[in-house]
């Protein structure tokens, strides 16, 4: 870590990017949201955080160092807040500025869940509330949405879109009214600057759920923030001999302590909605990959079930689990017509089950519960039967403790019900493993690889199908 951090700092210095060099970098950050790990792991993590802080300071960036969500950040490191609201936050020393390094404009998009949206009225209220408390710095996360390409998205179940309902969307287009309303908020705060930087606010009650925060300078500058934290009801308040109407859950900003120039709940910006249109004139083709289309050199066999990430090393999202089941000719289900049932328990995140080359079912987990269980009837015949399970990892964990315990893949048990013997546990018999898909090995996703096979007319509802569009 020290080598990497030093490399980055040296690169920034060589390009003249720090503020004292005339560049745009005004802050340096070391680690990110490491505090929760300290709570979990105790002294070893505290020692690491202290080492990281001292290492960073020694690099002499010439700008302040910060640690996000690190309550005991050692001096001169500034501990900062990340969250939807940070008006509750104070740094661990009174001489440190109150900084909000991640004002969340929404949340990341997950597979299988609605696209998150945060109303700009609520976001503006959170920012104004932070400033009225004496906050000195706000950084939006995200202000410009983005896109993760290929397999670079986090997880589990994080989509490749990292739009975050940001003021600038992942296509680089302005999202209104979020962009315009925040622009007006920033303009109003800027008008308050002479009073804001002069000292702490004087707070007075204006009602049961209403208050004023007044900033004054020695030169006569005055700025006021009038808050109504009631979520349902409007409020009329009296301030400095005048009446002000405050919408629910809002703050009015008065740069001269008289005139309201902005209210967080009153949106005057134009509302715009993006309309997606179907792309026309495209030609679709498909290529069908065979099930278990691997050679002996590409596969390996082990007794029992193996954890997926340890096998794939995250070089692919796919791992084949294949085993064989011998069925005697005297099995009753062969004549009764009552098919056996197969149960497969997996740590996540998605699973396709094939029996004798035919897809018998698909199951997948969720953001809240990545674990899954497949249960379904299977068609077996007398003699040897092949059970192949394609396990799919939908991203690696992006936050949390003890990542080594966050498993993926089939860990069992795998049980076959409905045989003469009652149940047969397949967990500890021999399994053959194949890392990745054949199409990945052939680089079908690349321009050169896609030309190595013959593509045909697109097919529907066919498993293991690659699609190409031109």
Automatic annotation (TrEMBL):
<keyword id="KW-0326">Glycosidase</keyword>
<keyword id="KW-0378">Hydrolase</keyword>
<keyword id="KW-0964">Secreted</keyword>
<dbReference type="InterPro" id="IPR048913">
    <property type="entry name" value="BetaGal_gal-bd"/>
</dbReference>
<keyword id="KW-0325">Glycoprotein</keyword>
<dbReference type="InterPro" id="IPR041392">
    <property type="entry name" value="GHD"/>
</dbReference>
<keyword id="KW-0732">Signal</keyword>
<dbReference type="GO" id="GO:0005975">
    <property type="term" value="P:carbohydrate metabolic process"/>
</dbReference>
<feature type="domain" description="Beta-galactosidase beta-sandwich">
    <location>
        <begin position="212"/>
        <end position="267"/>
    </location>
</feature>
<keyword id="KW-0052">Apoplast</keyword>
<dbReference type="InterPro" id="IPR001944">
    <property type="entry name" value="Glycoside_Hdrlase_35"/>
</dbReference>
<comment type="similarity">
    <text>Belongs to the glycosyl hydrolase 35 family.</text>
</comment>
<protein>
    <recommendedName>
        <fullName>beta-galactosidase</fullName>
        <ecNumber>3.2.1.23</ecNumber>
    </recommendedName>
</protein>
<dbReference type="Pfam" id="PF21467">
    <property type="entry name" value="BetaGal_gal-bd"/>
</dbReference>
<dbReference type="GO" id="GO:0048046">
    <property type="term" value="C:apoplast"/>
</dbReference>
<dbReference type="InterPro" id="IPR008979">
    <property type="entry name" value="Galactose-bd-like_sf"/>
</dbReference>
<dbReference type="InterPro" id="IPR017853">
    <property type="entry name" value="GH"/>
</dbReference>
<dbReference type="Pfam" id="PF01301">
    <property type="entry name" value="Glyco_hydro_35"/>
</dbReference>
<dbReference type="GO" id="GO:0004565">
    <property type="term" value="F:beta-galactosidase activity"/>
</dbReference>
<dbReference type="Pfam" id="PF17834">
    <property type="entry name" value="GHD"/>
</dbReference>
<feature type="domain" description="Glycoside hydrolase 35 catalytic">
    <location>
        <begin position="1"/>
        <end position="188"/>
    </location>
</feature>
<dbReference type="InterPro" id="IPR031330">
    <property type="entry name" value="Gly_Hdrlase_35_cat"/>
</dbReference>
<feature type="domain" description="Beta-galactosidase galactose-binding">
    <location>
        <begin position="318"/>
        <end position="385"/>
    </location>
</feature>
<dbReference type="InterPro" id="IPR019801">
    <property type="entry name" value="Glyco_hydro_35_CS"/>
</dbReference>
């Amino acid at each position: 870590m020290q080598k990497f951090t030093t490399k980055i700092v040296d690169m920034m210095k060589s390009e003249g990017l720090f503020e004292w060099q005339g560049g745009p970098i005004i802050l340096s950050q070391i680690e990110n949201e490491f505090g929760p790990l300290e709570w979990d792991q105790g002294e070893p993590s505290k020692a690491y955080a202290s080492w990281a802080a001292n290492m960073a300071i020694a690099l002499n960036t010439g700008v302040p160092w910060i640690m996000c969500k690190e309550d005991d950040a050692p001096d001169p490191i500034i501990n900062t807040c990340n969250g939807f609201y940070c008006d509750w936050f104070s740094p661990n020393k009174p001489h440190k500025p109150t900084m909000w390094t991640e004002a969340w404009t929404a949340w990341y998009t997950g597979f299988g869940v609605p696209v998150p949206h945060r109303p700009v009225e609520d976001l503006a209220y959170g920012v104004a509330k932070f400033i009225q408390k004496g906050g000195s710095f706000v950084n939006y996360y995200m202000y410009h949405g983005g896109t993760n390409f290929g397999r670079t998205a986090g997880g589990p179940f994080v989509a490749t879109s990292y739009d975050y309902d940001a003021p600038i969307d992942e296509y680089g287009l302005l999202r209104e009214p979020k962009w315009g309303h925040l622009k007006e908020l920033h303009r109003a705060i800027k008008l308050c600057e002479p009073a804001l930087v002069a000292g702490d606010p004087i707070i007075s009650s204006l009602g049961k759920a209403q208050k004023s925060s007044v900033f004054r300078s020695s030169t006569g500058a005055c700025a006021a923030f009038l808050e109504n934290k009631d979520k349902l009801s409007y409020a009329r308040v009296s301030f400095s001999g005048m009446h002000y109407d405050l919408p629910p859950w809002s703050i009015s900003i008065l740069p001269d302590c008289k005139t309201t120039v902005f209210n967080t709940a009153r949106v005057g910006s134009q509302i715009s909605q993006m309309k997606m249109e179907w792309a026309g004139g495209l030609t679709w083709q498909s290529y069908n990959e065979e099930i278990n289309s691997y050679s002996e050199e590409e596969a390996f066999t082990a007794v029992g079930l193996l954890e997926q990430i340890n096998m794939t090393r995250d070089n692919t999202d796919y791992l084949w689990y294949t085993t064989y089941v011998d069925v005697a000719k005297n099995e009753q289900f062969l004549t009764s017509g009552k098919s056996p049932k197969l149960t497969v328990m997996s740590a996540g995140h998605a699973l396709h089950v094939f029996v004798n080359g035919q897809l018998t079912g698909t199951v997948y987990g969720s953001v809240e519960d990545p674990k899954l269980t497949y249960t379904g009837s299977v068609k077996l015949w007398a003699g040897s039967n092949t059970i192949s399970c394609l396990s799919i990892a939908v991203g690696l964990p992006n936050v949390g403790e003890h990542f080594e315990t966050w498993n993926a893949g089939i860990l069992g048990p795998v049980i076959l019900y409905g045989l003469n013997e009652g149940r047969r546990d397949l967990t500890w018999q021999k399994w053959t493993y194949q890392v990745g898909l054949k199409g990945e090995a052939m680089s079908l996703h690349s321009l050169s690889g896609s030309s190595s096979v013959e593509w045909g007319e697109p097919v529907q509802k066919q498993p293991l199908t690659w699609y190409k569009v031109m």
